[in-house]
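Box 4.2: Ligand-aware structure prediction
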Amino acid sequence: MSARTVRLALIPGDGIGPEVVAEAEKVLDAATATSDVHFEKTTFSLGAGRFLDTGDTLTDDDLVAIAAHDAILLGAVGGVPGDPRLKDANIERGLLLKLRFSLDHYVNLRPSKLYPGAAGPLANPGEIDFVVVREGTEGPYVGNGGAIRKGTPHEIANETSVNTAFGVERVVRYAFALAERRRKKLTLVHKTNVLVHAGAIWQRIVNEVAAEHPEVAVDYLHVDAATIFLVTNPSRFDVIVTDNLFGDILTDLAGAVTGGIGLAASGNINPDGAFPSMFEPVHGSAPDIAGQQKADPTAAILSVALLLDHLGLQDEAGRVTRAVEDDIASRGDQVRPTSQIGDAIVERLQA
Amino acid sequence: MSARTVRLALIPGDGIGPEVVAEAEKVLDAATATSDVHFEKTTFSLGAGRFLDTGDTLTDDDLVAIAAHDAILLGAVGGVPGDPRLKDANIERGLLLKLRFSLDHYVNLRPSKLYPGAAGPLANPGEIDFVVVREGTEGPYVGNGGAIRKGTPHEIANETSVNTAFGVERVVRYAFALAERRRKKLTLVHKTNVLVHAGAIWQRIVNEVAAEHPEVAVDYLHVDAATIFLVTNPSRFDVIVTDNLFGDILTDLAGAVTGGIGLAASGNINPDGAFPSMFEPVHGSAPDIAGQQKADPTAAILSVALLLDHLGLQDEAGRVTRAVEDDIASRGDQVRPTSQIGDAIVERLQA
Ligand SMILES: CC(C)[C@H](C(=O)O)[C@@H](O)C(=O)O
Ligand SMILES: CC(C)[C@H](C(=O)O)[C@@H](O)C(=O)O
């Protein structure tokens, strides 16, 4: 029996990205050391650093080369805020969002779990274990906007959210299928009372798909009310489905209440398999602490678990998750350098 | 010396609205009993109840009549969620937002303060005392949107955020003036890295107005990061200025971390005085507990303090705020009926 080969694109990126990806790689290697799978890795130099060196953000050649892989692991991209040399570079839109849009990552999967031992800001958090299914390819993120009379007292700047039945239905179906495998509860979050057009298409499609899933209890919350429940009663959530912008906001808040975005993992998934899916910590590049071994690699390592699960390697994914859980449970107040956290998790995997 | 007359429009509304407005009125009367000001009150029957009775949401006659007042006190509007008779009524857009837009309430002022004795969800909240200055007349709330192929698998629903230099500048100027009177710190919240057009006009105008206020320390946060800080370090905020939608989200979250939206007051302000300003609790009509004396009238009462302050009655406003603070400090775990809370605050005012 011949080993399966997985072509993995690595994008360490900027700031703490390379540090956390190094630990994630260690863990990936350890978790699959005895598996019948071989990872063929290619590292892509992308991000603010590359832009400063070459002026390129993401070339067509980069995109073609990355798309030829089976999966992508990304650390974090983005330069020092306010760096004048990056004034006209929009690394977020030109690189991160360009990857998500070009590779049709229509499911942005963001689990939130309060692990025993993780210290969050809430006095009485209760059990927290939910997943945000954030739409990844449309909504307010499409970039359809512009300005007239720019820079004058008469400027008008517009930004249009585009929501298609095609785009909403596929992500809503994914969310319902996920809810079927979990606690069978789905919450649509939007702002239907104000954004009546965008809201109506989401509500209609959720209602339609709900009819095919009589076992799933469905409810609805306005985004403002959802933020209240995330701090007063996060246990009420199982699967949240929402648009690109509301998902962005809710998942940062969710990361905070479950112990910080140092622990929050995510997958940018193309469920059809037409393009490689991309796994990345929710946190950014944190240039202020880069190169100092101060970053927590846990979010990147949990992103590896999501990657393994996506590749059908459930055993390996489960082992990584359990090793991380055990590590978090034993942390207490100790502060360890980035690589020691990775090593400790590798040791647990090898035990 | 003749008493000043203030024409006050009361809109008790639906659900718990009438109950909390009744207490707010008691407090208003008590706080101004010995003042040289006389309130001439007119009550307007508006909301889901009125819609069900008459089919009207807000007529032109209503609007003209309300606009002839000096100020407005609103309880809460909105019917029972899912009531089929309200399917085609949008009380939020047709009444609440119509008032805010027609009366040019371009400053939506929402203070957040953690009062001693108020129990919030955070384990270590620190001192919380900031004000969100939310734009009230444009952004994603304009209602400029629509759908084609509605109800079909090919539907496309758009929603456009409209941001004008005129609209952004006037609210930003208000926020800077407020920061000058407070701790001289202003945070712009937006999502400039993704919503590049809407984001750029906000950032440009904040930069321009900042140059006129060298004493004010200015920073910027993406909306997702801002939600993190609201639960991990809310003390960092003094004045937040933001658009209509981000302001909606941040102020519900801010209400939650400072002890619940039962305490959160707001003013919809037309600083030019061309139209009457409107004061209302941030909470909704909560039809599930309506008529049971279970609602906390504190948010409505603190909205009276904002109203008095807006009318130039700073002494009276300060007395209401202090009476509320003393009441909150003495609450402990006791649960009192709505009217008892109002009575207790009135007693403190009379003491
Ligand atoms: C960096 C930014 C473009 C991105 C987003 O808004 O999606 C980030 O906040 C995230 O959540 O992954
Ligand atoms: C009821 C709704 C239209 C309103 C808003 O979104 O502004 C409410 O949430 C608020 O914050 O006052």
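In the box above, the bound molecule is 3-isopropylmalic acid. Chain A has two domains: 1-106+267-351, 121-257.
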